[in-house]
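Entry 14. Structure prediction run on the chain below.
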Amino acid sequence: MLKALILLLSFALFIQADEKDEIAKVSEAMGHMIGKNLQSLGLPLDLQAVLKGMEDASQGKSSPLAEEEYEHAITKLQEQSHELAATKNLSEANAFLKKNAEQEGIVTLEQGKLQYKVKKEGDKEAPVVQSYNTPLVRYRVHALNGEPLAADIEEELIVLDEALLGLKEGIVGMKEGEERTLYIHPEWGYGKESYVPNALLIFDVEVIKADTAPASTAEGVHLLQTAPTTPP
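Output returned:
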């Protein structure tokens, strides 16, 4: 009887220990998710103060800022962070393009604004993309640090007059089957107001078909004028 009671007590303690371990894992995972979300804000936060705020909230203590004051402070921090990132990214973009212009195989289409390098030549007899065309392309785009700025596009029709200026000017003149890497200054890219402010854009582009628009509508496509697109 005593042996059975000891075994039962040991089993109960094992279950409690196992539950505590699971709670600890879930708690750590939750903290990890909160940390990732805080990091994605790009704000200069004091982690120890964040932890203190969480502990105070769990104990029913009041916040050091009213909700309206908190929202105002967050907005101000975001604006400051955006400005700092924009200044840093613009400086890096200018420095990169200046240095990159000296590299072998780099062609400058517009000084300090647009460069490209041919990765694969198109066929000599292949059609060439004109400024009024709607080419079928595949591409990927990333920032200077390698961060993807959009999902890779397998195939997409691009109305050039609706595209980013740097992308449009970089694609015009490409032949079917040609592949280029475009280096686009932020002023010809997404600009300062994007979620990655003043990011230098690096596009890897392949032209599948130089033009998909019927010949009778090519002039109409050329007349379309819209603002440049921005990343999703």
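DSSP finds five helices and six strands in the chain.
Filed with the rest of this week's runs.
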